[in-house]
Amino acid sequence: MTRLRPNQTLRLLRDGAPAVGTWLQLHSIHATRLLAAQGCFDWMLVDFEHTPVGHDTAAHIFSTISDLTQGRITPLARVATGSIDHIKQALDAGSQGVIVPMIETAADAEAAVRYARFPPLGERGAGGLAPHLGFGVSRPEYIASVNGEILVGVQIETIAGFENVEKILEVPGIDLVLIGPNDLHVSLGLPAKFWSDEPEFRSAVDRVVAACREAAVPVGMVCRDAAAAKDRIEDGFTFLGLGSDAHFMLTLAGQQFGELYDLEEPAETWCNLVRLTTDATNDPAR
Which intervals hold domain HpcH/HpaI aldolase/citrate lyase (predicted)? Predict the structure, then answer.
Protein backbone atom coordinates (compact mmCIF):
# COMPACT_ATOMS: atom_id res chain seq x y z
CA MET A 1 0.00 0.00 0.00
CA THR A 2 1.46 3.33 -1.04
CA ARG A 3 2.33 6.00 1.54
CA LEU A 4 2.34 8.70 -1.11
CA ARG A 5 0.79 11.92 0.18
CA PRO A 6 -2.22 12.78 -1.98
CA ASN A 7 -2.25 15.85 -4.17
CA GLN A 8 -4.65 18.08 -2.24
CA THR A 9 -5.61 20.18 -5.24
CA LEU A 10 -6.37 17.13 -7.38
CA ARG A 11 -8.47 15.70 -4.57
CA LEU A 12 -10.57 18.86 -4.37
CA LEU A 13 -11.02 19.08 -8.15
CA ARG A 14 -12.01 15.41 -8.42
CA ASP A 15 -14.57 15.97 -5.67
CA GLY A 16 -15.98 18.98 -7.52
CA ALA A 17 -14.90 21.38 -4.77
CA PRO A 18 -13.20 24.75 -5.34
CA ALA A 19 -9.40 24.77 -5.19
CA VAL A 20 -8.20 28.34 -4.62
CA GLY A 21 -4.57 29.28 -5.07
CA THR A 22 -2.26 32.09 -6.06
CA TRP A 23 0.50 32.92 -8.54
CA LEU A 24 4.09 33.37 -7.36
CA GLN A 25 5.79 36.03 -9.46
CA LEU A 26 8.38 37.51 -7.09
CA HIS A 27 10.27 34.22 -6.59
CA SER A 28 11.24 35.05 -3.03
CA ILE A 29 11.73 31.96 -0.90
CA HIS A 30 11.15 34.04 2.25
CA ALA A 31 7.94 35.62 0.95
CA THR A 32 6.69 32.20 -0.19
CA ARG A 33 7.32 30.72 3.24
CA LEU A 34 5.45 33.52 4.98
CA LEU A 35 2.53 33.31 2.55
CA ALA A 36 2.34 29.52 2.74
CA ALA A 37 2.39 29.61 6.54
CA GLN A 38 -0.83 31.65 6.52
CA GLY A 39 -2.58 28.57 5.12
CA CYS A 40 -4.87 30.65 2.91
CA PHE A 41 -4.45 28.66 -0.31
CA ASP A 42 -4.87 25.15 -1.70
CA TRP A 43 -2.09 25.64 -4.27
CA MET A 44 0.73 28.07 -5.02
CA LEU A 45 2.11 28.32 -8.54
CA VAL A 46 5.52 29.35 -9.84
CA ASP A 47 5.14 31.13 -13.17
CA PHE A 48 7.93 30.10 -15.54
CA GLU A 49 6.12 31.58 -18.54
CA HIS A 50 6.08 35.30 -17.83
CA THR A 51 8.44 35.93 -14.91
CA PRO A 52 12.21 35.37 -14.61
CA VAL A 53 12.95 32.39 -12.38
CA GLY A 54 15.68 29.74 -12.47
CA HIS A 55 15.12 26.08 -11.70
CA ASP A 56 17.38 26.28 -8.66
CA THR A 57 15.21 28.99 -7.07
CA ALA A 58 12.02 27.22 -8.16
CA ALA A 59 13.19 23.98 -6.54
CA HIS A 60 13.68 25.81 -3.23
CA ILE A 61 10.22 27.37 -3.53
CA PHE A 62 8.53 24.03 -4.31
CA SER A 63 10.26 22.31 -1.39
CA THR A 64 9.44 25.21 0.92
CA ILE A 65 5.75 24.78 0.13
CA SER A 66 5.66 20.98 0.35
CA ASP A 67 7.90 20.73 3.44
CA LEU A 68 6.25 23.51 5.43
CA THR A 69 2.66 22.45 4.70
CA GLN A 70 3.17 18.66 4.51
CA GLY A 71 0.87 18.38 1.50
CA ARG A 72 -1.75 20.87 2.65
CA ILE A 73 -0.72 23.26 -0.16
CA THR A 74 0.16 21.92 -3.61
CA PRO A 75 3.21 23.40 -5.35
CA LEU A 76 2.43 23.90 -9.04
CA ALA A 77 4.24 25.32 -12.07
CA ARG A 78 3.08 27.07 -15.18
CA VAL A 79 5.76 26.08 -17.64
CA ALA A 80 6.94 28.40 -20.39
CA THR A 81 5.91 25.97 -23.11
CA GLY A 82 4.66 22.40 -23.42
CA SER A 83 7.99 20.88 -24.47
CA ILE A 84 9.41 17.81 -22.78
CA ASP A 85 12.35 19.70 -21.30
CA HIS A 86 10.22 22.39 -19.67
CA ILE A 87 7.75 19.90 -18.22
CA LYS A 88 10.29 17.39 -16.96
CA GLN A 89 12.45 20.08 -15.36
CA ALA A 90 9.49 21.65 -13.53
CA LEU A 91 8.40 18.26 -12.17
CA ASP A 92 11.93 17.19 -11.23
CA ALA A 93 12.35 20.51 -9.41
CA GLY A 94 9.47 19.48 -7.15
CA SER A 95 6.32 20.79 -8.77
CA GLN A 96 3.37 18.48 -8.20
CA GLY A 97 1.57 19.61 -11.33
CA VAL A 98 2.01 21.65 -14.48
CA ILE A 99 -0.18 24.16 -16.27
CA VAL A 100 0.76 24.23 -19.96
CA PRO A 101 -0.01 27.49 -21.79
CA MET A 102 -1.17 28.14 -25.35
CA ILE A 103 -2.73 24.72 -25.98
CA GLU A 104 -4.43 24.90 -29.37
CA THR A 105 -4.81 21.32 -30.60
CA ALA A 106 -5.42 17.82 -29.29
CA ALA A 107 -1.82 17.00 -30.28
CA ASP A 108 -0.57 19.80 -28.01
CA ALA A 109 -2.59 18.42 -25.11
CA GLU A 110 -1.58 14.81 -25.75
CA ALA A 111 2.10 15.77 -25.69
CA ALA A 112 1.71 17.64 -22.40
CA VAL A 113 0.07 14.65 -20.73
CA ARG A 114 2.67 12.24 -22.13
CA TYR A 115 5.62 14.32 -20.93
CA ALA A 116 4.19 14.54 -17.39
CA ARG A 117 3.65 10.78 -16.89
CA PHE A 118 6.07 7.96 -16.26
CA PRO A 119 5.82 4.88 -18.53
CA PRO A 120 3.66 3.12 -19.48
CA LEU A 121 1.35 6.17 -19.53
CA GLY A 122 4.00 8.58 -20.82
CA GLU A 123 7.67 9.16 -21.37
CA ARG A 124 8.84 11.12 -18.34
CA GLY A 125 12.36 10.17 -17.28
CA ALA A 126 12.96 8.66 -13.83
CA GLY A 127 16.17 10.48 -12.88
CA GLY A 128 14.82 13.30 -10.72
CA LEU A 129 17.00 13.86 -7.66
CA ALA A 130 14.42 14.98 -5.10
CA PRO A 131 10.78 15.38 -6.26
CA HIS A 132 9.79 12.31 -4.22
CA LEU A 133 10.60 14.17 -1.00
CA GLY A 134 7.63 16.48 -1.50
CA PHE A 135 5.34 13.44 -1.42
CA GLY A 136 7.06 11.94 1.63
CA VAL A 137 8.19 8.69 -0.02
CA SER A 138 11.26 7.05 -1.51
CA ARG A 139 12.19 7.65 -5.14
CA PRO A 140 11.20 4.08 -6.28
CA GLU A 141 7.80 4.45 -4.62
CA TYR A 142 7.35 7.89 -6.17
CA ILE A 143 8.11 6.60 -9.66
CA ALA A 144 5.76 3.65 -9.22
CA SER A 145 2.84 5.59 -7.74
CA VAL A 146 2.90 9.27 -8.67
CA ASN A 147 1.25 9.24 -12.11
CA GLY A 148 -2.18 9.65 -10.58
CA GLU A 149 -1.06 12.49 -8.29
CA ILE A 150 0.58 14.83 -10.83
CA LEU A 151 -1.88 17.46 -12.01
CA VAL A 152 -1.83 18.19 -15.74
CA GLY A 153 -3.67 21.35 -16.73
CA VAL A 154 -3.98 22.78 -20.22
CA GLN A 155 -4.50 26.47 -20.81
CA ILE A 156 -6.99 27.65 -23.42
CA GLU A 157 -6.24 31.27 -24.33
CA THR A 158 -6.47 31.69 -28.10
CA ILE A 159 -9.11 31.54 -30.81
CA ALA A 160 -7.65 28.25 -32.06
CA GLY A 161 -7.74 26.84 -28.53
CA PHE A 162 -11.41 27.43 -27.86
CA GLU A 163 -12.39 26.44 -31.40
CA ASN A 164 -10.68 23.08 -30.84
CA VAL A 165 -11.64 22.64 -27.19
CA GLU A 166 -13.96 19.67 -27.78
CA LYS A 167 -11.17 17.74 -29.54
CA ILE A 168 -8.66 18.77 -26.88
CA LEU A 169 -10.92 17.38 -24.17
CA GLU A 170 -10.98 13.98 -25.85
CA VAL A 171 -7.34 13.52 -24.79
CA PRO A 172 -7.11 11.15 -21.78
CA GLY A 173 -5.26 12.39 -18.73
CA ILE A 174 -6.25 16.08 -18.69
CA ASP A 175 -7.05 17.04 -15.10
CA LEU A 176 -7.94 20.66 -15.70
CA VAL A 177 -8.66 23.29 -18.35
CA LEU A 178 -7.56 26.77 -17.33
CA ILE A 179 -8.88 29.70 -19.34
CA GLY A 180 -6.28 32.43 -19.82
CA PRO A 181 -8.47 35.56 -19.90
CA ASN A 182 -5.85 38.18 -20.73
CA ASP A 183 -4.46 36.36 -23.77
CA LEU A 184 -7.92 35.24 -24.84
CA HIS A 185 -9.03 38.87 -24.92
CA VAL A 186 -5.92 39.80 -26.93
CA SER A 187 -6.45 36.90 -29.35
CA LEU A 188 -9.95 38.24 -29.97
CA GLY A 189 -8.61 41.73 -30.70
CA LEU A 190 -9.70 43.13 -27.32
CA PRO A 191 -7.76 44.85 -24.51
CA ALA A 192 -6.24 42.39 -22.04
CA LYS A 193 -8.48 41.91 -18.99
CA PHE A 194 -9.16 39.30 -16.34
CA TRP A 195 -12.89 39.42 -17.19
CA SER A 196 -15.29 41.42 -19.32
CA ASP A 197 -18.76 41.37 -20.79
CA GLU A 198 -17.46 41.61 -24.36
CA PRO A 199 -19.70 39.29 -26.41
CA GLU A 200 -16.80 37.57 -28.20
CA PHE A 201 -15.02 36.86 -24.92
CA ARG A 202 -18.12 35.60 -23.13
CA SER A 203 -19.04 33.40 -26.09
CA ALA A 204 -15.59 31.79 -26.08
CA VAL A 205 -15.69 31.27 -22.30
CA ASP A 206 -19.18 29.77 -22.48
CA ARG A 207 -18.04 27.33 -25.15
CA VAL A 208 -15.07 26.18 -23.07
CA VAL A 209 -17.16 25.84 -19.90
CA ALA A 210 -19.86 23.86 -21.73
CA ALA A 211 -17.29 21.53 -23.28
CA CYS A 212 -15.63 20.94 -19.90
CA ARG A 213 -18.97 20.21 -18.30
CA GLU A 214 -19.77 17.69 -21.04
CA ALA A 215 -16.37 16.01 -20.63
CA ALA A 216 -16.50 16.15 -16.80
CA VAL A 217 -13.20 18.06 -16.68
CA PRO A 218 -12.75 20.87 -14.12
CA VAL A 219 -12.40 24.37 -15.51
CA GLY A 220 -10.40 27.21 -13.99
CA MET A 221 -9.94 30.96 -14.20
CA VAL A 222 -7.52 33.53 -12.81
CA CYS A 223 -9.22 36.28 -10.82
CA ARG A 224 -8.27 39.82 -9.88
CA ASP A 225 -9.82 39.68 -6.40
CA ALA A 226 -12.07 37.75 -4.02
CA ALA A 227 -15.26 39.25 -5.45
CA ALA A 228 -14.37 37.98 -8.91
CA ALA A 229 -13.43 34.57 -7.50
CA LYS A 230 -16.82 34.29 -5.81
CA ASP A 231 -18.53 35.13 -9.11
CA ARG A 232 -16.52 32.49 -10.97
CA ILE A 233 -17.33 29.84 -8.36
CA GLU A 234 -21.01 30.64 -8.88
CA ASP A 235 -20.41 30.20 -12.63
CA GLY A 236 -19.09 26.67 -12.04
CA PHE A 237 -15.34 27.26 -12.05
CA THR A 238 -13.51 25.14 -9.48
CA PHE A 239 -9.83 26.04 -10.03
CA LEU A 240 -9.45 29.68 -8.98
CA GLY A 241 -6.27 31.73 -9.14
CA LEU A 242 -6.60 34.60 -6.68
CA GLY A 243 -4.10 37.36 -7.41
CA SER A 244 -0.37 36.85 -6.90
CA ASP A 245 2.32 37.71 -4.40
CA ALA A 246 3.22 40.74 -6.55
CA HIS A 247 -0.46 41.73 -6.78
CA PHE A 248 -0.91 41.54 -3.01
CA MET A 249 2.16 43.69 -2.38
CA LEU A 250 1.42 46.35 -5.00
CA THR A 251 -2.29 46.52 -4.24
CA LEU A 252 -1.90 47.00 -0.50
CA ALA A 253 0.91 49.51 -1.03
CA GLY A 254 -1.20 51.47 -3.52
CA GLN A 255 -4.28 51.38 -1.31
CA GLN A 256 -2.33 52.65 1.70
CA PHE A 257 -0.66 55.37 -0.36
CA GLY A 258 -4.02 56.41 -1.81
CA GLU A 259 -5.65 56.50 1.61
CA LEU A 260 -2.80 58.58 3.03
CA TYR A 261 -3.09 61.22 0.28
CA ASP A 262 -6.83 60.91 -0.47
CA LEU A 263 -6.21 59.64 -4.01
CA GLU A 264 -8.85 57.89 -6.10
CA GLU A 265 -8.28 54.20 -6.80
CA PRO A 266 -7.15 53.54 -10.41
CA ALA A 267 -9.87 52.34 -12.78
CA GLU A 268 -8.14 49.01 -13.46
CA THR A 269 -5.68 48.10 -10.68
CA TRP A 270 -3.00 49.57 -8.45
CA CYS A 271 -0.62 46.97 -9.94
CA ASN A 272 -0.52 48.80 -13.27
CA LEU A 273 0.27 52.17 -11.75
CA VAL A 274 3.79 53.44 -12.55
CA ARG A 275 4.42 56.90 -11.11
CA LEU A 276 8.20 57.18 -11.44
CA THR A 277 8.42 58.94 -14.80
CA THR A 278 11.13 61.31 -15.95
CA ASP A 279 9.18 64.30 -14.64
CA ALA A 280 8.10 62.71 -11.37
CA THR A 281 8.22 64.72 -8.16
CA ASN A 282 7.41 63.95 -4.58
CA ASP A 283 4.03 65.60 -5.00
CA PRO A 284 1.40 62.82 -4.42
CA ALA A 285 -1.07 64.69 -6.61
CA ARG A 286 1.07 64.18 -9.70
Answer: 23-248
